[in-house]
Amino acid sequence: MSFRFSFASTFVLLSAALACGQVAAQADHSWTSIGAVGSVTPAEQGSVEQSINWARVPFGLASGSATLRYNVTAVDGLFVPPPALSSFAFGMRFIDNGASGRVQLRLRSYDRSTGALTTIEALDSNDVAPSSSAQSTFKCIAHDFDFSQKTYFVEAVLSKTALAGRAQLGATWITPTTCIVSP
């Protein structure tokens, strides 16, 4: 059995292979962090457990909250979106089983010259149907990251108001994407 390729079919195959490679390369340009690595203030140490990949308000705590911070580092994909992309997906993997648990994330910037602290976007587990299983959510954002002038971080607030509540963060990410930013 022999195969014969024309110049046109070889060009099509090569173009498809390059396009697949470009998509795979774009996926490598995401900023990601697991929940367990967030920084917490010493005063809030008893209000959070960090294990393997999760950060959570302890199961045995009737109520409480903790604020964790995740430093956003300058990965290639955050500087300038590739030409075909117009936005980023800011997302989280979490558990919030109902009214007594909540996970809130804020993508923030700190301007090193003025000291201004700005919230770029926020996610709230209360905007998603509660579940005892892990689930993910994201928002599309349009933002020009400027690591020469600003420092970026994700601030997570985990809180619960009853013993049965679950507030857990498994991961957070910022990924170049083609999702549509709502006005």
UniProtKB/TrEMBL annotation:
This is Uncharacterized protein. Keywords: Signal. Residues 1-24 form the signal peptide. It comes from Ideonella lacteola. The lineage of its organism: Bacteria, Pseudomonadati, Pseudomonadota, Betaproteobacteria, Burkholderiales.
